[in-house]
Amino acid sequence: MAAEVNGADIPNWVIIFGSTVVTAVAGFALGLVNRGPAMQLAINSAVEPLLTGYKQRVDELVAEVHALRTEIVVLRKALDDAKVAPGFGV
After folding, report:
1. Contact 89/83 with Cβ under 8 angstroms?
2. Which residue would you say has higher pLDDT here, 66 or 31?
3. Range of 1's domain?
4. Based on the domain organization, do 20 and 56 belong to the same domain?
5. Is residue 9 a contact partner of residue 2, using CB atoms and an 8 Å limit?
6. Rounded to an integer, what distance in angstroms lies between the CA atom of residue 8 and that of residue 11?
7. pLDDT tens digits, residue range 31-65?
8. Could you tell me if residue 10 is inside a domain?
9. DSSP track, 22-80
10. DSSP assignment, residue 85?
11. Does 26 lie in the same domain as 61?
12. Are 10 and 22 in contact (CB under 8 A)?
């Protein structure tokens, strides 16, 4: 049996195949749209340890810079005191 569209006979298998293709494409598009939260969760769980590690390393480097600045201040003061003391000046 065939369906008549604008005077042309279209076989049933073409109509079924066409509706199957449209359904498959719509399902694929819907899957792409709805994967956002799951994909975001997967990416967050993969990236979170890296970000935590980087943050910890940056905090360690900031602490080291502050310690070095403190040490530089102490060394500059010792150098200035040594220049003032008799027998050590330039």
Report:
1. yes
2. 66
3. 1-34
4. no
5. yes
6. 10
7. 777 777 777 788 788 889 999 999 999 999 999 99
8. yes
9. HHHHHHHHHHHHHTHHHHHHHHHHHHHHHHHHHHHHHHHHHHHHHHHHHHHHHHHHHHH
10. S
11. no
12. no
